[in-house]
Structure formats: C-alpha cells, structure tokens
Amino acid sequence: MSDIESRLQSIEARLRExxxxxxxxxxxxxxxxxxxxxxxxxxxxxEESVRNLWTEDGVYDPGGNxxxxxxxxxxxxxxxxxxxxxNKGCAHVMSMPHIVVDGDxxxxxxxxxxxxxDGDHWRVERASANRWxxxxxxxxxxxxxxxxxxxxxxxxxRRVLGSGLPPSSAAATGT
Length: 175
Hints:
Blueprint: H1 3-43, H2 47-53, E1 54-61, E2 67-68, H3 70-74, H4 80-88, E3 90-94, E4 98-102, E5 105-118, E6 121-137, E7 140-150, H5 155-163, H6 167-173
Parallel strand pairs: 1-7
Antiparallel strand pairs: 1-2, 3-5, 4-5, 5-6, 6-7
Helix pairs in contact: 1-2
C-alpha cells in the first residue's frame, strides 16, 4: 500500500468517525428537544403537539391507568386533574435526561416536576422518575413508551432511574 493510499484510508476513517459523532450529537439534541416539548405542550393544552410526540401505538404510563396510543396520550389534557392544574396555574418541568442511543432506539432517563400555583406561591405537586423509550421514525424521534413513577422513596422509582444508566456508569463513579 502506498503512502497516499494509507493517508486516504486514514482520512476516510476520521471522516466516518466525525460523521458518526455528529449523528450521535444530533440524536441527543433531537431527544432533548422532544422531552423539553412535553411540558409546554400539556400546559398550553395543545393536544396535537402532545399526540405528535408519541408513536401511533405509543404508551404513557404515569402510574395507574396507562394511556395507550398517541390519540389517548394527546387527550390526557382533557382529564379533570390536568384541567384543574392548568386552571390554577401549573408547570410540567422536565430535567435534562441521561440519554443512551442504540441505533434507531434510545432511552432517556430523568426527572419531572409538576409545579402548581398555591395562592401567591408555587409548590411541587409531583416529583417523578421518568424513563422515555424512543424510536427513530421517518418523522424523527418519537416516544414509544414513557414510564413515570413518583419519587416516594420506593424501589419502583429508583429502578426507573437506574434502568436507563449504562452498567459502566456505576463502576466509573464508584457507586
């Protein structure tokens, strides 16, 4: 192999690596944007925006009765509890999630808080652990399944948080 051929192979390998890194960064950015869209969508009562975050057969399991299908998820904004929150003043706030992308699927793990206006103040109505299972579609990343569990000191919520972390995270942090 000539020196020029060797250099070309090295350049091609570096280009492939740069393209791969750029795609991973774009995937994470797109998933951050998707998760960040949820709060403003439900708080503004935008059924279409909520529905469009999920796949057609997507599931949102907030604990209790899951919403199955993106139409059902979109309609969650009409529930009595949600309407009561919005009419009082509320904010569904998502934390920046930890994201693991594996090809055309991804898991985003993080926290959500629902703040509710209480007179002249705000209080946390609900603090939860979240696991978002996502798939890449022709229309971009969509939620296939979202699991939401209140942080009540239970193993359930800790399992939700721990399930999205790669095994090497615990070893790297010494936990």
